[in-house]
Each structure stands twice: as structure tokens, then as C-alpha cells.
Amino acid sequence: MSDNAFHILKERGFLYQTTDDKALEKILGKEKVTCYIGFDATADSLHVGSLVPIMALVHMQRCGHRPIALLGGGTTMVGDPSGRTEMRRMMTVDKIKKFGEGIKKQFACYLDFDQDKALILNNAEWLLPLNYIEFLRDVGVHFSVNRMLTAESVKQRLETGLSFIEFNYMLLQAYDFYVLARDYDCHLQMGGQDQWGNIVAGSDLTRRKLGLQVYGMTFPLITTSSGEKFGKSAGNAIWLDSRKTSSYDFYQYWRNVDDRDVEKYLGLFTLLPMDEVVRLPGENINRAKEILGFEVTRLAHGKEAAIEAYTAAVKQFGGSGAEGIKTSSEIAAVHPDTDSSIPTVELDRNSLKDGLWVVRLFVDAGLCSSNGEVRRLIKQGGAYLNDKVIQDDRMELSEKSLSDGALILRAGKKRHKKVTFK
Q1: What is the CATH number of the domain that holds 75?
Q2: 277 within domain boundaries
Q3: Same-domain pairing of 308 and 369
Q4: Buried b (16+ CB within 10 A) or exposed e, 403-418
């Protein structure tokens, strides 16, 4: 297997565009490079949409390069217009700091920070103290408004309206690249394809101010084979934080992806060798999905959480019929005898005495937000109680409805709740 990060990223589906393919291929094969990707702190957790850049940093580190995960403590205060139809909501400094602390913990699941093998930095350190007039004279002078208007992130917003504060985002991201090149010897910025204009602006600014050749690389924006936005489940984001998306639901998201996406996702979101990535879906697609779910959950939540999620799913729905998941030796010895990782909610036992309305139960369990949503779910045949389709939205439940002292609810294919009563 090649140890050239350029070859590995290209083979696994990460490469969309670079500022210089040949130069990057040569440099990443011969030198140890410091690279960076920025992550704005718009929530207290990253979601699976951030896994492409995170896994790219993982592969860079595995090839001996030094990755920088850059928290956007400063840029978050402005808001990236890329991929948005309207201005992002403005957040307080305290909230941005709090969100940044939550995100920091997640990088430790993927990158080794010992002895500065990887760095977590925050651009608030150099952006917040900037003097605006000095910044305009020092940085703004190098930017052409005509050229900025051709950037995809700007063009898409001109029709709906682009605020002046958002228009400044490109300058700030470019300044990040300049600072990291100057202070941390960082020669490569990576990001989603919608960041191309910002990345090119940063490499140009760095060349002008430092006389230094630096490079850019973008990743393709991921959509599902059915054309849906990647990382959403029933309209809800799939978060990396297990407190926001449980390990069980996280595993189930990957276990239930479209068959056509399995090979692509194995390449992007696991560390399995590419011969297995190509081979597994053709041998047994359901087994390949189990491996995908386990491997991605193991990276995000740890081995034990992945085992619990896998065994709970096997008990609930059965397995692929294969003799364990041989690429994950931890699973081979596990007997599926627990459903402890299914998200659980506890309700008052007295609610069963006079009959518990099944519609109210789905709302109280957090699977639906309103009675009307539950009724529609039942009408469409997507509501399940103890693995049986609910056909009557007037159903009332009692102690006799319990199975092993609990109720297992399911909304559609992917969202589950175990309801216990005290």
C-alpha cells in the first residue's frame, strides 16, 4: 500500500480539486507537511457531515504529516456564507467558546495529539485582537472585489442577499492560512469543495505576504445515491456526540444506508484496507453495512459503545447471517444478548392504569413532536410497537402490553426508543 497521502486520499474518494496535483503528489510523497482544516463552532458538537475533513486529517497523520484542527472561534462570529441561503444567526462570544470546548473533545477520538503530532488551535487568538483599519490596509489591499464576486460561496448568495459582515469571511479565512503558514509552517489547507474560493484566496495572500508557495485541496460534497443531503435522518442531524445522537442510533444510521452508498462510505469513513472496501459489498451487502456501522461507531464513540450498539441491533433485528464480522475481531467473541444501548426513556407506571394512549406515548418518548405527527406516522405504516405495526391510532396500552417489563417503539426504520416504567 502506498504511504503517499495524495494517493490514499485519491483512492478513497477524498479528492475533488487541488491547486496543483503534481506538486502535491510529489510533496506529500517526500516531505512531512503540516496541513489544516477549519471547523466553525456553530454547535456544541460536530455532525457526520464533518467526518470527511476529519478522516482526511486522520489519513494525513497516518502518513506521517502533522494535522491542525482549527477551531473558528473568530470566524464563527462572522458566519460562513457557503452553502447558506440566509445569514447565520449571530452568537455570543461565551456561547462560541462553550461550543468550541465541546468540539475539541471529539477530535481526540480521531487524532493523536501527543508530542504535537497534531494541534488544536483557535483563530480567535489572532482574529479577535485585529485592528480593523490596520487589517484593511494590511490584508484588504490584496483582495479584488471583482474576483471575490466570482467565488461560488458569494455568487450563490447574491440572489438572496449577502450581508457585508459575511462578505468579509473570505478575508478572515485567507488570513488564517497566512498566520498558520507564518507561525506553524503550514503549507496545505483542505476543506469542502464549497471552500475553494476561500482556500485559493488564502494561498494567494500567503504568497503575496510571505513569498511562500502553499497549496489547497478540496473534498467532494457528499450526497446519498437517492440525492438526499448526507448526514440527515428524518430531517435530524446525526451528531458525533453520543449525548445528542446515541451510539445505537448512530450505528443504525450507517447500518441502514442505501446499498449503493456502502462502498463509497467504507472508503471515506473507515480505515479498512481498500481491497476489503471493494470486496465486502459484493460478498454480502448486509454484512458490509454491519461492518460500516461498527467501524464508524468505533471511531466516534469507542469500541465498547460500538459493540453494544451492534449487539443490540442484532438482538432487535437479527444479523447478516455471516460468522461474525471478521474484520473486527472485537465483535467475533460477542454474543448478542443485550439491548442496553437502545435509547431508553422512563415513564410513570401509573400512566398504564387507565390506559396509555399510544399516540401520547410516542410523543412522551421523544420519537415525535406532536400528536398529528404520530397519527400520520401510523397512517403511513411507519409506527411499530414491540416490532409490530401499529394500525389503530386509538390504541391504549396497559400492563399486559409490556414485554419483559418494557415497550420497544420504532418510528420508521431507524429511530427507536425503549420505554420503561417506574
Answers
A1: 3.40.50.620
A2: yes
A3: no
A4: eeebbbbbbbeebbbb
CATH, residue 261: 1.10.240.10
Cα distances from 314 to residues 119, 292, 345, 365, in angstroms, run 39, 14, 21, 22
Residue 347: Cβ-neighbour burial (10 angstroms; 0-12, 13-18, 19+): middle
| Domain shared by 207 and 160, yes or no | yes
CA distance 45 to 34: 25
Total structural domains within the chain: 3
Tens of pLDDT, residue by residue over 257-308, are 999 999 999 999 999 999 999 999 999 999 999 999 999 999 999 999 999 9
62 plus 199 within the same structural domain: yes
pTM equals 0.75
Question: Based on the domain organization, do 18 and 70 belong to the same domain?
Answer: yes
Nearest to 248 by CA among 292, 293, 303, 181: 293
* Grid coordinates belonging to 345: 426513556
H/E segment holding residue 361: helix 358-364
What's the start-to-end Cα distance of the chain, in Å? 56
Distance from CA of residue 151 to its chain's centroid?
Answer: 25
Beta strand 17-18 pairing with 34-39: unpaired
Of 25, 23, 26, the residue nearest 11 (C-alpha) = 25
| Same domain flag for 294 and 146 | no
**Residues 6 or more apart in contact with residue 236 via CB below 8 angstroms:** none
Higher pLDDT, 343 or 26: 26
- Same structural domain, 13 and 124: yes
Expressed as residue numbers, the domain containing 401 is 344-421
Question: Where do runs of H (alpha helix) occur along 108-186?
Answer: 124-127, 132-138, 145-148, 152-158, 164-167, 169-184
State the DSSP code for 223: B
End of a domain among 219, 242, 258?
219
CA angle 356-362-366, nearest 5°? 130
What are 339-372's pLDDT values in tens digits? Answer: 455 788 888 888 888 889 999 999 998 888 899 9
Distance in angstroms (rounded) separating the CA atoms of residues 53 and 67: 11
> How far apart are the C-alpha atoms of 410 and 421, rounded to whole Å?
17
Q: 96 and 152, same structural domain?
A: yes
For 56, other C-beta atoms within 10 Å of its C-beta total 24
Please name the residue that has the C-alpha cell 472496501: 277
Q: pLDDT tens digits, residue range 42-65?
A: 888 999 999 999 999 999 999 999
